[in-house]
Amino acid sequence: MIMKRRKILSGIALFVCFLTALWGIFWLFFIIIDVLRHGITAINPALFLNDPAPPGEQGGGLRNAFVGHLMITICATLIGVPVGVLGGTFLAEYGRKYKISKVISTLADIMVSVPAIIVGAFVYAVIVKPLGHFSGWAGAVSLGIIMIPTVLRTTENMLSLIPWTLREAAFALGAPYYKVIIQVVYRGAATGILTGIILAIARVTGEAAPLLFTSFNNTFFSLNMNEPIASLTVTIFQYAMGPYEDWHTQAWGASLMITVFILLATITGRLLIKRRYKD
Amino acid sequence: MSIQKSKILDFGFLVFTAVTAFSVIIISAGIFLVLFKESLPAMNRFGFEEFIFSTEWDPVQEVFGALPALTGTLITAFLALLLATPIAIGIAIFITEIAPPFLKGIIGTSIELLAAIPSIIYGMWGLFTLAPIMSQYIEPFFQSTIGKVPLIGKLFEGTPLGVDLFTASIILSIMIIPFTASLARDSFNLTPAVLKESAYAMGATKWEVVKDVVMPYSKLGVLGGVGLSLGRALGETMAVAFVLGNLNQIPKSLFEAAATVTVKLANEFTEADKDIYLSSLYYLAFLLFIMSFAILAIAKAFLVRAEKR
């Protein structure tokens, strides 16, 4: 009798756990479907090819924000990825035996979760204020700083997975350490490092907070990284909070593009990792 | 290529990678020092206690106090934690103990995608989709049920507009579920199979194994995961900026607009025309940085200890 009660209790508890999993999936689909539903109506050639119309007027597009966002993200990647990959290399290879490497690792783990807006405030103080104006570069630097810890930690983990015997084989041939790293270790860990980079790019693509007071915003088309430059995320914030129906629609369109890009990038990253460990 | 030359090259590469690795320390220390330096004028003028416990925020009179922003931040973060933790632990149990292999992958991926959706999308969806639903159906429902209970009912007073602490906390909770869940899952997986098997051999049901063997064993790791999520919730900006209004007041109920440190920064940073105004915002940012850094460091320490066992 008592056994039966315990069995029933166990069944109920496990069913509740199943419900929690449904709860999580429910929100995911709710958000994705909602962004699709609203965003799909806004997707047309004009959105990509036209610059914004004056506030309150019909039409216009977000060409400036698309181009600006792309430029900021590319520059951020050029700053964040090399630093992250090389730093991770030090932690996993040359710095293996030093205590300081552990400290850097732990610090990077903490920095991954530090509020992005704090990074924006930091860059405002060290770049925007001294120069006296907002600029695309300042935005790229903040996103780069946000990327560094993520890329550094994944690189370190991926390099640590490469068996030590591989390196020894190369050493036995008389190769210096730097050659071993570049020609043996990097080659073996390439997929993992690439995944880390993809996920880091996906993460910063959706960042708005650090751009608010670094790259700021620009209603005109601009390719000059020394001036304020429009970005999709800041534009979404401005448009969504704005009073015009047209603005809301375009904000949904931009949201859809960003969401699709990020979800695709994340899924690609996961598939890469999966394939890597199946072989 | 002489041995000499390759030695020099090797040393060069070593120095190069070392410098990039140390950049993490430089950036972290730099953020701390720069925020501190920028907030000095406000620190000198308002001091520590006065700033933290003052509710004034008046750019015209140049009087600034942090209490409303700090309470807003803490209330939303803790409420989100309260909502997210049980759900996340449930998800972790489901993935590690119950789900058939094919479901494991699907649910695991879905939960990870929830973490990949950017803050600004949560905010947009929260403002245009969730807030109206909250104000029309969910909040009135709460008011007519729990709202009737004395004392607790006070929490649900006010006009249900949907743009309030409650909606913001719900969005935050959805955002932090993935972090708690994935760390809880990892710590559940650290439980030695022998322990579980011996419990089954004693005739324990699955739930008893989870409750009395897995949970106690992975307590540290789960706590670390909760701490990490709390650190994230404190610093979330855009998702909250859309659905919280930016109202400088100490909220009396969950259905009131409020402000958090991050929302204040996002809304007022570019409007700060006076040095003392900007400095006060930096002071807020500095306090937020210290708080989130400390919480994340403690959480990290828990996770490291959990792995060492």
UniProtKB/TrEMBL annotation, chain A:
- Residue ranges annotated for the ABC transmembrane type-1 domain, each copy included: 66-273
Positions of transmembrane segments: 12-33, 66-91, 103-128, 134-152, 184-204, 251-273
**For this UniProt entry, what's an example GO CC term?**
plasma membrane
Q: Name one GO molecular function term.
A: phosphate transmembrane transporter activity
Q: Which InterPro entries match?
A: MetI-like, MetI-like_sf, Phosphate_PstA, Phosphate_transprt_permease
The record's CDD domains line, in alphabetical order, gives: TM_PBP2
List UniProt keywords, sorted A-Z: Cell membrane, Membrane, Phosphate transport, Transmembrane, Transmembrane helix, Transport
Q: What is this protein called?
A: Phosphate transport system permease protein PstA
Topology relative to the membrane: Multi-pass membrane protein
Member of which family? Belongs to the binding-protein-dependent transport system permease family. CysTW subfamily.
Which PANTHER family does the annotation name? Answer: PHOSPHATE TRANSPORT SYSTEM PERMEASE PROTEIN PSTA
One of its Pfam families is BPD_transp_1
Q: Output the Gene3D superfamilies linked to this UniProt entry.
A: MetI-like
**Record localization:** Cell membrane
Which GO biological process annotations does it have? phosphate ion transmembrane transport
UniProtKB/TrEMBL annotation, chain B:
**CDD domains the record matches:** TM_PBP2
Q: What is its main location?
A: membrane
Taxonomy, superkingdom: Bacteria
InterPro entries in UniProt: MetI-like (IPR000515), MetI-like_sf (IPR035906), Phosphate_PstC (IPR011864), Phosphate_Transport_Permease (IPR051124)
* The entry's keywords: Cell membrane, Membrane, Phosphate transport, Transmembrane, Transmembrane helix, Transport
Which first-to-last residue range defines the signal peptide? none
> Would you tell me the protein name for this molecule?
Phosphate transport system permease protein
